[in-house]
Amino acid sequence: MSNHQDQWAFETQAIRTGVIRSGEREHSEAIYLTSSFTYDSAEQAQAVFAGDEEGNVYSRYTNPSVKMFEDRMAALEGGELACAASSGMAAILGMCMGLLKAGDHVICSRSVFGTTVTVFAKYLDKFGVKTTFVDFTDYQQWRDAMRPETRLLFLETPSNPLGEVVDLEIMASIAHENDALLMVDNCFCTPALQQPLKLGADIVVHSTTKFIDGQGRCMGGVAVGRKELINEMHLWQRAAGASMSPFNAWNFYKALETLNLRMEAHCRNAMALAQWLEEHPSVEKVHYSGLESHPGHSLAKRQQKAFGGVLAFEVKGGREQAWKVMDAVSFISRTANLGDTRTTITHPATTTHCRLSDEDKARAGISENLIRVAVGLENFEDLKTDLEKGLAQL
Ligand SMILES: *Cc1c(COP(=O)(O)O)cnc(C)c1O
Predict the structure, then answer these.
(1) Which domain holds residue 25?
(2) CA-339 nearest atom, ligand 1
(3) For the modification N6-(pyridoxal phosphate)lysine, which residues carry it (predicted)?
(4) What is the CA radius of gyration of the chain?
């Protein structure tokens, strides 16, 4: 990247960084939907395969559409290099496969995406990588879990669905004092709201399926960080094949062009809804770090540009009352996905967190009266009217 591009502001980078033109003078970037690439001569093929001449070989290794997305993501997160993957989970697994070996130890927050727990507790464990799970916001637990063979600390901030936050500078110092790496799942904030690498994290991972696509269309993932770390994931991807489809990459980098505006609008709607719900007589409690009543409010205010598009609230009553609100909405989508233009509503206790034991649910604050709303870009008054249908019945 030239110095000139380094000096661009976020919005400009999101639109202008990483463009590869095909020679056809297209203005909007082309989709390079091809599995392999051709050469002028046998000699050139040999040079490209040997790495003596720059060029693409096969889209499992590299592809121009995927590269455009990777370069743009690296710029937005403030990292040297990015590696895209076929899903968020493929990015998390790929980064772990690149960095870890049997005998290594990982410390992971309990408040991470459920499948992330499965990958660490079941699959990496099977290959001799052991994981200790800790309470996300208890720094002492992270310190106490540290072992000489600890290589990686993994967390997600803010957490899903309660929006708890952890201080990334403190977490980076805990990791680095012990020669471990800090990997942060930045899915809920996106680089538009939070840039963990700038606060000391070593690697950022994303499910681009969420806010980065922003329209609920494509599955994808990406990791960003220093060259020597991300290169390890690139080598794994070349061999193991969980590469991002060029078509999906095209959707993602086009979507990055509006990421900043979309996140501003998600945050504005979420804040307005949180304030309205907090005053509602049928609502027991609202969990949104934008509210002063939230325990993470001042840290979120310092660490993030805004408070994100996801909130949770407890209705007065239990499961029956929560389901009444869920069932009464007319246009809000009953689905577990998030980061969509369309607002989605979920009952965590019986869907996203249904596999947790009652004890773990209680520990994570996943009560039967809790509802999560991933606030979309519809008109705020319409959203309020839709949620009020059920709340008015309680
Ligand atoms: C969805 C999600 C993932 C997994 O991503 P996929 O694209 O579904 O594989 C990981 N982390 C968080 C925070 C998520 O929301």
Answers:
(1) 5-258
(2) 15
(3) 210
(4) 22
